[in-house]
Write a structure and sequence with these properties.
- By secondary structure, this protein is of the alpha/beta class.
């Protein structure tokens, strides 16, 4: 059964090196090039919306954008295509805030 699971950015350190997951930044290429989460690949939302993407079989996509809205729309598209999907609540902003707090 496919599903969309909204998860906290605190999960990323646990999964960033786990081959079961594929971290995907759904922002545009320029935004991705400025900054992105470690080990993330870039598949812009527009590509997902058009079906112009490849996710290796057996991988669970973990999506994020800047704040979480666009990645949720992308998660719905992937869900409709049969994927189990994790969506990072709050996106890159929430991840950066989490990383700041974890330094203290």
């Amino acid at each position: 059964m496919s599903l969309i699971k909204n998860v906290s950015p605190e999960i990323l350190p646990e999964i960033e090196n786990n081959s079961k997951y594929l971290i995907i930044d759904v922002r545009d290429e320029n935004e991705y090039n400025v900054e992105h989460i470690k080990n993330a690949i870039n598949i812009p939302y527009e590509n997902i919306e058009r079906g112009n993407y490849k996710i290796p079989s057996g991988k669970i996509p973990v999506l994020y954008c800047m704040r979480g809205g666009i990645s949720m729309m992308a998660a719905r598209k992937l869900y409709e295509n049969g994927y189990e999907v994790l969506n990072i609540v709050g996106g890159l902003n929430a991840y950066k805030n989490y990383k700041k707090k974890s330094l203290y």
